[in-house]
Design brief:
heterodimer, A: 251 residues, mainly alpha, Ferritin, 11 helices, 70% helix, globular, B: 331 residues, two-stranded antiparallel sheet, 66% helix, binds fe (ii) ion
Chain lengths: 251, 331
């Protein structure tokens, strides 16, 4: 039982990294500046590395012989458990960077805590991810400030990105029996613990950027339980195309 | 002897001072590096600007055909390898623009020249990547041909270019091996995979041979570039080296280059190959290749859509400086 729960937990975190990495990889070659193209590829690569470790860990705990690729390419929408936030389309660079910042501000609080997990495999992955997240949040926060403070146009675009994505941030702090049970055992980090730390990271950056979170938007959630937005199916259609077209082939 | 030829008006400027020119050539002959602040003939500077910026543009445009498969890589391992490769190519572009800037041209000016169609990039990137096997073929053949061209450039007479190339060549040879490994995996796979691999070789073989440029007889600047040690081998010599290295690699994994005239010449040890279709080469060069328009459109779109982002960064930096200055004044 504990293993099924740990598998589900690792899968949630792995799916977040996998889907966000995929979104960032859509940018590569098309970024606003060469340095940004390289930085987007770099973050995508870090997240993909995290995803591979987490999916492999999930597969091992699940005990059904599924490896990272079986999990990444063999599931349909209902079995993906990422946050709705990370599957939202790239939009413009402002939308991408706001999405990234809202996620990074969570990741940078999650991973150092999870590196103290009683599950050694998770703790190891978290330790590596913590160093990467620290770098990612520095970059995405800097862009949020640059865009919010920069020009009238960049400000408007950044505010529009925030208006669009803010409702998805609340899902980060939702927990069901997976997180609750594992947190009690010292294996997972209870998402509710992270809320104030996330706010402490997000608020000063938005303030410096002159951006204001929208009010009364409610919380868009369901990703953890496989209730996704329309976007995920299209993403998977592209992402899984080769494995679907050539079942059983080795690459 | 050499200075005599150069003392006449050169294409990119007026006549050069004979004594300076002689000293410059002597330095090159001693295999010493020319550094940014050293005197150099105008034509040397212009040749290098053209070559290095063209090389930088190729790295950047080259991200497009490979980026085309980033979202569809068939396994997470392949996706990671491809992401890292495309990121490396962006890094190569960055070092090369920096090397060209030491010659007195800005990156913005170079990019403008590319976007306005006044600067070239390697024609190879005007071919499409239509199946996954093209990613293997590009790494194996295109990076493989690039290495053949670039290893001699590590000894180029211009210091900043030579040093950039040393760093770049290490990564390119890694790309070549990864591409070949991806291709071998396909070649030993299912019938569908093998078909995909052979088809990619069929399409990329000749364009890869064309990457070395026109044959020596039709290559007007080769003599001068060799004398200046910007070039160390002729186009045909490099092309032959590439064919000699690549044919055995193809056969080892059961693939065959699409050339009925390919045969091994026992006496010289070289692989002899058929005539290259230079009409195709010239068509692609003239802008009529399968993807010329798409590649340029993608670069222009990224540049245009990125304008507000670059402006925002500049505006923010300016505001920040003035706020700091005001704070300092208030103290
Ligand atoms: Fe490169
Ligand atoms: Fe390369």
């Amino acid at each position: 039982m504990a293993d099924a729960l740990t598998a589900a937990y690792a899968l949630r975190l792995g799916d977040d990294a996998l889907i966000l990495s995929h979104r960032l990889s859509e940018w590569v070659g098309h970024g606003p500046e060469l340095e940004e193209d390289i930085a987007l590829a770099n973050t995508a690569l870090d997240l993909l590395g995290q995803a591979r470790l987490l999916l492999a860990c999930a597969g091992a705990r699940e005990g059904r012989g599924r490896d990272e690729d079986a999990l990444a390419y063999g599931r349909d929408v209902l079995d993906f458990s990422n946050l709705l936030l990370v599957e939202q389309p790239n939009g413009d660079f402002a939308q991408t960077m706001v999405r990234q910042f809202l996620f990074d501000a969570y990741a940078v609080e999650l991973w150092p805590r999870l590196s103290a997990s009683r599950d050694e495999a998770l703790a190891g992955i978290a330790g590596k991810a913590a160093r990467e997240a620290a770098y990612h949040v520095e970059q995405s926060a800097a862009w949020v400030v640059r865009m919010g403070d920069g020009t009238e146009e960049s400000h408007a675009r950044a505010q529009a990105g925030l208006d669009l994505l803010w409702p998805y941030a609340g899902e980060i702090f939702e927990a069901d029996e997976v997180e609750t049970t594992l947190a009690e055992k010292g294996i997972a980090v209870a998402p509710s613990v992270l809320r104030e730390h996330w706010q402490a990271r997000v608020e000063p950056v938005l303030e410096e950027a002159g951006l204001v979170p929208p009010e009364g938007t409610g919380v868009r959630k369901g990703g953890r339980q496989g209730r996704h937005s329309e976007h995920l199916g299209h993403l998977l259609a592209e992402f899984q195309f080769m494995q679907r077209a050539y079942p059983g082939a080795e690459w | 002897m050499y200075t005599q030829g150069l003392n006449q008006a050169v294409e990119d400027g007026g006549p050069e001072d004979a004594e300076l020119l002689a000293r410059f050539q002597a330095k090159i002959d001693r295999e010493e590096k020319i550094e940014p602040n050293d005197w150099m003939p105008k034509a040397y500077r212009q040749t290098l600007i053209r070559q290095i910026s063209q090389h930088a543009h190729s790295e950047i445009v080259g991200m497009l055909p490979e980026g085309n498969w980033l979202t569809r890589a068939p396994s997470l391992r392949r996706k990671a390898i491809l992401l890292a490769k495309v990121q490396d190519e962006g890094g190569h572009g960055l070092y090369l623009y920096a090397a060209a800037e030491t010659l007195g041209i800005s990156r913005a000016e170079m990019v403008d020249r590319l976007l306005e169609g006044r600067a070239r990039y390697s024609s190879i990137f005007n071919y499409p990547t239509i199946t996954w096997a093209d990613i293997g073929a590009v790494g194996w053949l295109v990076d493989g041909a690039a290495i053949m061209n670039q290893i001699p450039l590590c000894r180029c007479s211009y210091g900043p270019y030579a040093r950039a190339m040393i760093r770049i060549c290490k990564e390119e040879s890694f790309h070549q091996r990864q591409g070949y490994e991806a291709m071998s995996r396909l070649a030993e796979g299912t019938a569908a995979q093998k078909r995909m691999a052979q088809d990619a070789l069929d399409r990329w073989w000749w364009p890869s041979l064309m990457m070395f440029g026109p044959s020596d007889a039709d290559s007007p600047h080769t003599g001068r570039s060799m004398r200046w040690k910007i070039k160390r081998f002729t186009n045909d010599e490099l092309r032959q080296k590439f064919v000699d290295a690549t044919v055995p690699q193809a056969r080892l994994i059961g693939l065959e280059p699409p050339d009925p005239e390919l045969r091994h010449d026992e006496e010289s040890g070289h692989w002899r190959f058929g005539e290259i279709d230079w009409t195709e080469f010239n068509e692609v060069l003239a802008g009529n290749g399968p993807c010329n328009r798409e590649r340029m459109a993608a670069r222009r779109k990224a540049h245009a859509e990125g304008a507000w982002v670059r402006e925002a960064a500049t505006a923010h930096a300016r505001k920040k400086r003035s706020r700091m200055a005001m704070a300092a004044a208030a103290e």
